[in-house]
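Exercise (ungraded).
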Amino acid sequence: MTVPGTRASSVLAETNAMINELVDKYGSPPVQVTMDTLFHDDLELESIDLVTLGVMLAARYGEQVSMAEFLADKDLVDVIGLRVGELVDYVVSQLDLAAGVG
Amino acid sequence: MPTIHVNDIDIHYLHMRGKVSGGPAPTLVCIHGLGTDSLASFYLTLAAPLAAAGVDLLFYDLRGHGNSTRPAHGYRVENFVTDLDGILTALQVNLPVHLVGNSFGGTVAFAFAAAHPAKTASLVAIESEPPTDLWAQRVGELLRSTKEQLSNEETFQQIAVMFGDHHARLSRQAYRRLEETTMAEEIPAGRVLDLVELSQITIPVLSIVGSDGFQAEDPYQLEGILPNCRTVVIQDQDHSVLVEAHRQVRDLLLGWIFRRPATTNVPGDPR
């Protein structure tokens, strides 16, 4: 199991809350996601839900966090197999960039 | 989740501004296809590179799809055209727009261009054709047979075995759309364009087709009926060109909108 760092843990917790807003829309029970949770196979979310999650992340963290940029160069198979941890790592890297870290 | 209320339904949309300043940016409206499709197929493949190149982008979910309202009725092509016109008016997009449509989205784009020539700068049709009698016949048959096949539970099990649970889930969603609405019956029953009306679509048209796609038998057919049409055939691709070959589609779109040569050689493009 992938263990997130401190900053990633915070982003993961916020992402978990956003994902629960999405699954709630479908009438599904609450979920507790980890870095290894798969968006499609584990959560049964679809591409349009990733778009909505992207809008929520940009509202929370600013326009430097862009789901469109994150996924632009991925192939369909990568998007279908996307893990929550990949997105969390991307958000952290964008926040580090904005803060001049690294 | 931004929505616009037009024609008694809520349309989910995303308006993304191009990142290059100076002068009015061209606006590209992206129109997705039927069934399990949504604005995501364009947004997740093309939004970032096109916005970075300075294109204003408008993505929206067609009625009955994605996060837009799913009314029980109102699925003729002209309903989709009225929606698009309402969206452009509501968002105060006043310059003529470039349209790109995938599959049925391209059919909507052709119908919009015919109804609103002054509002349309150009059109890119991906695996798509205008609404004609022949198109209505084919799409009607496709929707009828799809609905019939999906009414059999075994079909979903076969899809799961052949393509995985993800595709089986998408197919169930598509079936619910067809069951809960009159989409399958109304889409082929809408207003079609005749040869004279097609000859009056004088804007530049780029038709992108897969060598094994829906137009495989005659990939250049649109050049024969539209006065200003160019075709690009992407080799070894079927109807899923937008998603499977999104890098080539991106380069073709950039070249088209800014009228410069595409930066990617399209493998096997004979022209």
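Further reading is listed at the end of the chapter. For now, observe: Chain B has a mean pLDDT of 91. Chain B touches chain A at residues 1-2, 14, 16, 36, 38-41, 43-49, 51, 61, 66-67, 165-166, 169-170, 173, 243-244, 247 (CB under 8 Å).
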